[in-house]
């Protein structure tokens, strides 16, 4: 992987994919000082600069993963903003939104500034999500207006469900005043208490305390009612259950500003894959049943699901190489989400390529009020370039992330990333 | 008549060492020798090593009881747990119970086995007996002594001593276990490892 | 191979032929316990580590006796600190102990799956002495041995497991083993103490103790943990005893002989009344004796697999 200045580049032989129509058009692109200078058929012989033949690849506006954990500040042994960005680029992403469960939490302007500063020179746009409550403790709401002014794009206590309904109500009211969405980790912590996997036949077989679907459903239902009460925009994070699909479907039908995301691992794996107590398959929400996966797919088909996000959650091998109960929740995802989405949804005919990509390009930015990059002359060059017809074998030991906790190790996945362009930089893999 | 079908496919009968009538005579002689050496049967106990040693022991008991007109205690010894090759064998022998329903302390125990070869089985049997009690003596009776001892063990009563080579095997067939009585010298099957 | 697996992690997937082999071997070994010198040299030179991360007296003593009866060298490691409470990780603990050249590990841990986890960080033979709410295979084997001694067979027999099935690894292993051996199993207790999907393991659920008693040939009465009341899973000891306690009255109403088992330690007067526990129908002490024999059998049968010991 190498990052170069994108000051004078010709990308030739690629096809630009139109995300609304699905049309592909062979277009050469000239990038000058990070801007799209010219598009169309470019005569190579007359071009003074670096020519990249990207035949076989498609060009799309830069992918965005709106749910990642970069671990900095606090757990730089697991990931840093730099390594997290490297993993994002390797996965074909030019933008991420990072969750506030850092140490300290992203609950003050200083921490938001720290992250923005650290990410300044990265190719990847890093958008901090600030905490809903101070220290993510679920008691007092953060200085939301100031946080937004500093660059926070959403509020979330991700990882720690907000159990006090009244505080959640006020947080929604206040967040809507500053026109910023809440990203909602839905889990009733009483129902999920001490659970380490989905509650069902498999948890009984393995003897592990389970987390029932109801733990997630109860809070999705609660917060949809709070949206009805407050008018706040709420985005349900990593939705994993069939009941959730129905609740969000009904909320949308009622015209409520509720959106939701699904992770690739909740589409690829089920609780049955846990038979060997593999801690690389331990995450929260837990892997559910085939029935839930089918409902999620249906929700994706029907447009109930807005976004695919990885919930990229790096953990050290030392943290994961322990008994199942003691292992932390979370797995890597940035480098594999594109491949898993292509394999599980596009190649299986659940979604068209353009519709799947729109949920990783357009919808996350719409939800977070971030302008969607355009492939047009005069626009900043913010591009992802990959070959959807080629496959690769994922090798976790060579991950750009600082951690290795990926259940995808050794899997063959479609979608080989050629490179990404953003902020005047070009990365080729 | 001995048929090839009684043996595994790759075994070839080289000779019949003892035939049906011979076996009966040999056991009768052994019974008399045991009684003679011990001046009766009053303090005797006969203990056979599983599986064929036990069968032979049972027959000896009947003979001695007929001759002496008194009951002789009889027991079965399973030596699996005492084998020195227990963990080295690919196919672990099944562990079966030792069945000695009387106290062997201060008794003259006749330990019975079918074939005496390296002496390792006898060593294991002696250890097993010592764990059960403290007999006043242990004497050893075998139907066939084929030589090639690896331990300093000698039998007190021998049905027949036959010099054999390493590549041969002595097979004792008994009515109770094999539907016929005889002792055969066969070529040892290829070692299955 | 003596058994179809080189470890005993649970009874899930263990074929009937293996269970029969273990029970037969245990029966052969049992008389050794009554000998003047109750010891055989079978496991001489084998070192067994009893790795107990959860307080336990009877299981640990039973394993230790079994090991000593077989002349194995035994080392005990007891600790209630797991890596959850920081300090050395389980993996490091086990690899350190293994580096001291040991052959077998008997492990008990509060987290399910730990025995399986150990097989991935050591070459030693692993025997599960109870992991979380998952399995306790030697307990189920000794229960089955005790019942088989009584009946001669397990096929077609009816066993009701009574009480806190949800948190019970004893139930987990018993259901699997008994179903494999062709017995019928009913689990009976408060709905709050029933795990989801238990029917899929082959058990039938009942919430009526009198029906379960009327149906059963034997009751395996589980210990009720008092913490469960604090967690709100049943309202009071009084009500538990009234609804699910095994009393003489209840048994007499069934008008037939029913065998009573309990994995111990008993909360007398709560899940099981004293006059029942000490009655002729109770085979609780036979269970304890057979525990040593069954553990000897498991050690003997698994030791043959251990090529590292040669």
Keyword list:
heterotrimer, B: 193 residues, alpha/beta, Rossmann fold, 4 helices, 8 strands, C: alpha/beta, five-stranded parallel sheet
Number of strand elements of chain B: 8
Number of domains of chain A: 2
Query: Which strands sit side by side, in order, in the main sheet of chain A?
Result: 1-21-20-19-8-3-4
Low-confidence stretches of chain A: none
Gyration radius of chain B (Cα, Å) is 17 Å
CATH architecture of chain B: 3-Layer(aba) Sandwich
Strand order of the largest sheet of chain B: 3-2-4-5-6
| Largest interface, C-beta closer than 8 angstroms, per-chain residues | A-C, 21 and 28 residues
State the major sheet of chain A.
7 strands, mixed
Helix and strand pattern of chain B: EHEHEEHEEEHE
Number of strands of chain A: 21
Ends apart, CA distance between termini of chain B: 32 Å
Describe what you observe in this structure.
The complex is a heterotrimer of chains A (429), B (193) and C (310). Chain A has helices at 81-90, 109-119, 144-150, 165-177, 201-206, 213-230, 242-253, 265-268, 290-302, 317-320, 337-346, 353-367, and strands spanning 2-5, 8-12, 15-17, 24-26, 28-32, 35-40, 50-53, 58-61, 63-68, 93-98, 125-130, 154-155, 182-184, 197-198, 210-211, 234-236, 258-262, 307-308, 383-393, 412-422, 425-428. With 429 residues, chain A is α/β, with parallel strands linked by helices. Chain A folds into 2 domains: 2-59 and 376-428, Roll (Urease, subunit C, domain 1); 63-368, TIM Barrel (Alpha-Beta Barrel). In chain A, strand 5 (28-32) and strand 6 form a beta hairpin. In chain A, helix 6 packs parallel to helix 7. With 193 residues, chain B is of the alpha/beta class. Chain B has a single domain, classed as Rossmann fold, CATH 3.40.50.2020. Chain B has 4 helices and 8 strands, in the order E-H-E-H-E-E-H-E-E-E-H-E. Chain B has a 5-stranded parallel sheet with strand order 3-2-4-5-6. A 3-stranded antiparallel sheet of chain B has the order 1-8-7. The longest helix of chain B has 18 residues, at 20-37. The model of chain B has no long low-confidence stretch (mean pLDDT 89). Helix content of chain C is 38%, strand content 15%. Chains in contact: A-C, B-C. Chain A binds chain C through residues 199-210, 276-277, 318, 321-326, and chain C through 12, 82-84, 89-91, 109-114, 116-117, 131-135, 169, 172, 195-198, 200-201.
